[in-house]
Amino acid sequence: MADAVLVQPLSGVNRAPLLGAVIILAATLFLAANLHALLPFNAWGRVLLTPEEGNLRQLMARDVLLPRFAVALCCGAGLGLAGTLFQQVLRNPLAEPSTLGVFAGAKCSLVVATLWAPQLLVLGWDFAALIGATAAILLVFALSARRGFSPLSLILSGLVVSLSLGSFGSMLMMTHFDAVNDLYVWEAGSLVQNSWSTTLGLLPRLAVALAAAALLSRRLALLDLDEAGARSLGVPLLSTRLLGLGIAVVLSAMIAAAVGLIGFVGLAAPTIARHAGARLFGERLLTAPLIGAGLLAVTDQALVLMTGGVEVPAGAITAIFGAPLLIWLMRQISPAAEGPAPSGPTAQAFPMAVTDRSKILLGFALLLVIAVALFVGRTPEGWHIAFGGDFADLMPWRLPRVAAAAMAGLMLALAGLLIQKITGNALASPELLGVSSGAGIFLILAAFLLPPMDRVSMALFASCGAFAMLMTVLWLSRRSTFSSEHLLLTGVALGSIVASMLTYLTALGDPRILNVLVWLSGSTYAVTPGQAAFACLPALAALAIVPFVSRWLAILPLGRAASAGLGVPEWQSRILLLLVAAVLTGAATVLAGPLSFVGLMGPHLARLSGFRKPVAQAYAAALIGAALMVLADWIGRTVAFPWQVPAGLVSTVIGGAFYAALLARR
Predict the structure, then answer these.
(1) Nearest to 428 by CA among 248, 264, 557, 294
(2) Which fold has domain 355-376+383-665?
(3) Are 93 and 6 spatial neighbours (Cβ–Cβ below 8 Å)?
(4) Residue 585's closest CA among 473, 389, 418?
(5) Mean pLDDT over residues 523-546, rounded?
(6) Which of 526, 582, 625, 664 has the highest Cβ tally under 10 A?
(7) Of 519, 493, 517, which is closest to residue 505 (Cα–Cα)?
């Protein structure tokens, strides 16, 4: 495994045990406040021993609040232990169950098992979750192997796997809502309990995992040395790493099966322990679980106290606080630790050349996809091809939807190409850089803080959010000269904040969240003809601008020196192109949601088709993006009829596989 530059502790004195004890004490004080809200202090002892029959407050204290606190301690400790093992084995300070795709694999596996293999759930959810978690981390290793398992490429692969598997699981949940509706609460990472059974089930498993890690601790500690030094001391590296990873994956799967997806605790606990002075692995092995237990318990009990009975999943809150931590840690890793720098778009060799046949095939593919979307569909009687009167009756419904999807795909692909040219990074796109997520954040704020808006106002507001997020991501990545891993990890981390905000707002039950969910799911089924016509304006305007900025698009990827030498006004050109990309992303997000991967797939497929000159490449990417989004919308309309699967969700699943293939090639 490639070495990472680990963040050094602030002090030589190990204050991690004291810090963990202080956090747990704070959690206990919050618990006491919540208990006092239910019962007077003098009744606490009697409640634990002999609660009165029919006394709801006493039963809630004994069988709801206290088990919840105990489960939080167990899960926090387990996540802290799993994160410590992942980071030690992989020598990667960014590793934890959610960044490595373990939780997404567990979610996907549980959904599949619930729908098609319920016999796997007879003895509990642990086994099904473990299958998915193991498959996910093996996929992550396969994607990052060609980069030597460098720290950032490993985590980037994990986050891409998380996006893809998470979207696939969400698509299955939407199309089989009645069968898997219990998984919605579980997915959010809720610690709600109604008995002590979960605690009693977790305690022995956590004890076994801790004992196994302790027995392996000497061998794991020697992984701090380089491979030659560890081998000279007789450490069997392969078996040590496999055993350490096995303990961490099994523990993560068991916690996910018990309480759901609680991210970033496994990242925060070892990091805090290291900064508190736990230099040695043995010290972190003991103190990180202590700190993790305190962090999760204090977060959950504070939420219970502040919300006054409104259930807010702890998993959503830990992700909101954990994403900035991921960005900060990522910036502490020196560029030298990332492995070989990826090739930019101008350095890739594409042997194909553009021919008239390529142009004809591209145009024919777009027309074919549009024709299928307009003419072919499903009815209660089965598949149906509309002709004559049927076609005329369906056009008012299908045509606006197809037009909106096409314009959304066109704008995202064109925005992706502009961002790739600005950064010189072939893996950049509005979705992966968090630009679409910035638009989503502003839409959420608008829904809750401003009066109702029409689509035009929403698009303008979303464009402001997209531009602000794009500038933030570029500023945060300037230290690494906009390397692929730093750019993409920053964007994905910021995007996770949007998902956490949605989970939190959904838990509040506010009816305004329904509009936000429609916007951000990427569904086009409610688009009106007027809205579809409006979507054409920014798309056509951007296409008209491309010929006038073609020289910039050809020169900017060559770098600052080349741009200055060839007379390109670098600052002005970049800001103008960023504004265009932000407006396109904001308008497309209103139609297709913040995730789709079309902004990545369109430019790449255009290059692979042989379109290399800036203008031709931009127009080809736009047409391919339009075709991809129309196809995704048609699949979403028909794959689970009469249910509607949002086009953004379908294209995310397709795009995740495409992105994984790109990582494997690179």
Answers:
(1) 557
(2) ABC transporter involved in vitamin B12 uptake, BtuC (1.10.3470)
(3) yes
(4) 418
(5) 83
(6) 625
(7) 517
Which region holds residue 592: left if phi is over 0, alpha if psi is between -120 and 50, else beta?
A: alpha
Name the residue ranges covered by the structural domains of the chain. Answer: 16-333, 355-376+383-665
Taking the C-alpha atoms of residue 289 and residue 16, their distance in angstroms, rounded to an integer, is 11
Q: Do domains 16-333 and 355-376+383-665 have the same CATH topology?
A: yes
Q: How far is CA 387 from the centre of its chain?
A: 42
Question: What does the mean pLDDT of the chain come to?
Answer: 80
Tens-place pLDDT, residues 220-264: 988 887 777 777 777 787 888 899 999 999 999 999 999 988 888
> Is the predicted pLDDT of residue 279 greater than 60, yes or no?
yes
Find tokens 């996540």 and name the residue.
Answer: 79
Give mean pLDDT, residues 290-300: 93
Handedness of CA 470, 476, 482, 484 (dihedral sign): negative
Model confidence over 306-329: pLDDT tens digits? 877 667 777 777 877 777 776 776
Beta pairing partners, 379: 382
pLDDT at 487: 66
Long-range contact set of residues 551-557: C-beta below 8 Å, sequence gap at least 24: 552/421, 552/577, 553/417, 553/418, 553/421, 553/577, 553/614, 553/618, 554/613, 554/614, 556/421, 556/422, 556/424, 557/344, 557/345, 557/346, 557/420, 557/421, 557/424
Greatest extent of the chain over all pairs of C-alpha atoms, in Å: 86
Rounded to an integer, what distance in angstroms lies between the CA atom of residue 205 and that of residue 260? Answer: 17
Is the whole model's pTM more than 0.70, yes or no?
yes
Q: Which of 488, 429, 435, 436 is nearest to 158 (CA)?
A: 488
CA atoms within 13 A of residue 381's CA, in its CB half-sphere: 2
* Fold of the domain spanning 16-333: ABC transporter involved in vitamin B12 uptake, BtuC (1.10.3470)
